[in-house]
């Protein structure tokens, strides 16, 4: 396996996010229409979706797989690394079977899972509705939504935050606990550590603009895909639809830690990934796949980030990190859900 030039310390990377159990089902167009869901989207469930989950459970075959954007990325990252517990994860779950499944899968992957447990609520779930090659996500956060900053005040957890040198938080967590995000972001800036986020979904830029723009000055590396970048551009009145221009403008937005410029990484499905590094634009092609190899793109973006992180936290340059991101995404796409073969065969 790939090994860096130095031994990676335990807890080098810390992630925070919504631990969700994905309920994956293949549905018909009529089902999406009935519940007002777009073919390709990621939304938060509201009260109107409770009945949708019930109907799905009654009328469709559901496969349960561990999910949650940040936790997926961390599982993939840890899969690529040689030793367990290089990665720590915070998020909130209930005290139920779903939480056990999530903890077990993430731990098996080697992630040091430190959940905040709220006994009075259920563990979050995410409807993953597959229709043709499309995928509609509907997240019912439940316990994940009850995460509080108190979790960071627990002595053991304080130590995890201090020990880490890199932080990754998908934008979805902006809907849950901005104070926790800001605490970690400021710690990173004060100690010249690397703080990374993901635009996560168009609705984050559209409806959570304020917490997003408060966190952004602390972001050293920002990930996203083309539609998320477009939503960000619109929310910030960028007056351009060109992905390279948008990425460049995001990189140029104000930054607290002036010791390094902001890196922006925008994936575009099978099109090249756009990277802004030190103000310069780079393009990195993806690994081409045939139609037959393309099984399920769910989790491609998370896997890409996981692969990127695995190399980046070992001190590798961005170009090497992108290469590993493409490898991870390509692997996950060729299986159902955000899953991978037992052994990682990555050759840097
Ligand atoms: N059709 C494809 N062929 C080859 N690689 C792909 C394809 N789709 C996605 N990938 C890989 O996955 C990466 C991320 O893809 P994409 O931009 O679709 O992310 P995303 O939309 O955030 O993913 P998600 O489906 O998880 O929301 C790409 O940069 C590439 O490495
Ligand atoms: C658990 O969740 C409930 C319901 O949202 C909330 O009122 C309560 O404050 C949470 N408890 C803790 C310890 O976070
Ligand atoms: C920025 O870099 C300088 C020199 O490398 C260092 O002395 C300083 O502590 C860094 N700033 C922060 C916020 O760590
Ligand atoms: C980008 O991600 C969103 C979810 O945030 C998804 O709906 C969309 O299909 C993705 N775009 C591409 C080109 O993969």
Q: How do you describe this structure in short?
A:
This protein is α/β, with parallel strands linked by helices and 348 residues long. The chain has a domain at 13-17 and 68-117 and 147-333: Ribokinase (UDP-N-acetylmuramoyl-L-alanine:D-glutamate ligase, 3-Layer(aba) Sandwich), CATH 3.40.1190.20. The protein is 37% helix and 23% strand.
Question: Could you please describe the fold and organization of this structure?
Answer:
Its EC number is 2.7.1.20. Its cofactor is Mg(2+). It is an enzyme of class 2 (transferase). Belongs to the carbohydrate kinase PfkB family. One of its GO terms (molecular function) is adenosine kinase activity. The chain is an alpha/beta fold and 348 residues long. α10 (226-235) crosses α11 (243-252) and α12 packs antiparallel against α13. It has a 9-stranded mixed beta sheet with strand order 6-5-1-9-10-11-12-13-14, with helices on both faces. A 5-stranded mixed beta sheet has the order 3-8-7-2-4. The chain is built from 13 helices and 14 strands. The mean pLDDT is 95. The protein is globular and about 55 Å long. β5 (87-93), α4 (97-108) and β6 form a beta-alpha-beta unit. It has a domain at 13-17 and 68-117 and 147-333: UDP-N-acetylmuramoyl-L-alanine:D-glutamate ligase (3-Layer(aba) Sandwich), CATH 3.40.1190.20. One 2-acetamido-2-deoxy-beta-D-glucopyranose is lined by residues 40-42, 201-202, 225-228, 269.
């Amino acid at each position: 396996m790939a090994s860096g030039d130095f031994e990676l310390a335990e807890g080098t990377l810390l992630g925070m996010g919504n631990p969700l159990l994905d309920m994956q089902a293949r549905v018909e167009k009529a089902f999406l229409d009935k519940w007002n869901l777009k073919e390709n989207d990621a939304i938060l469930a509201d009260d109107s979706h409770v009945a949708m989950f019930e109907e799905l459970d009654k009328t469709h075959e559901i496969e349960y797989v561990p999910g949650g954007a940040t936790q997926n990325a961390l599982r993939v990252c840890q899969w690529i690394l040689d030793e367990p517990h290089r990665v720590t994860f915070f998020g909130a779950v209930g005290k139920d079977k779903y939480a056990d499944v999530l903890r077990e899968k993430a731990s098996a992957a080697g992630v040091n899972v430190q959940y905040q447990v709220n006994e009075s609520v259920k563990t979050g779930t995410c409807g993953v509705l597959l229709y043709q090659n499309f995928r509609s996500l509907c997240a019912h956060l439940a316990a994940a939504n009850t995460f509080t900053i108190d979790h960071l005040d627990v002595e053991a957890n304080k130590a995890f935050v201090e020990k880490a040198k890199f932080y990754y938080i998908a934008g979805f967590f902006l809907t849950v606990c901005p104070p926790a995000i800001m605490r970690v972001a400021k710690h990173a800036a004060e100690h010249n550590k690397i703080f990374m986020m993901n635009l996560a979904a168009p609705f984050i830029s559209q409806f959570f603009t304020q917490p997003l723009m408060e966190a952004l000055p602390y972001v050293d590396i920002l990930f996203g895909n083309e539609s998320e970048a477009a939503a960000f551009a619109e929310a910030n009145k960028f007056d351009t639809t060109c992905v390279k221009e948008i990425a460049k403008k995001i990189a140029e937005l104000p930054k607290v830690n002036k010791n390094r410029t902001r890196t922006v990484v925008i994936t575009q499905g099978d099109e090249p990934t756009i990277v802004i590094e030190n103000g310069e634009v780079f393009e990195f092609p993806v690994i081409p796949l045939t139609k037959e190899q393309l099984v399920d793109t769910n989790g491609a973006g998370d896997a890409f980030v996981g692969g990127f992180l695995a190399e980046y936290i070992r001190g590798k340059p961005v170009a090497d990190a992108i290469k590993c991101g493409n490898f991870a995404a390509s692997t996950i796409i060729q299986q159902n859900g955000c899953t991978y073969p037992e052994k990682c065969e990555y050759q840097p």
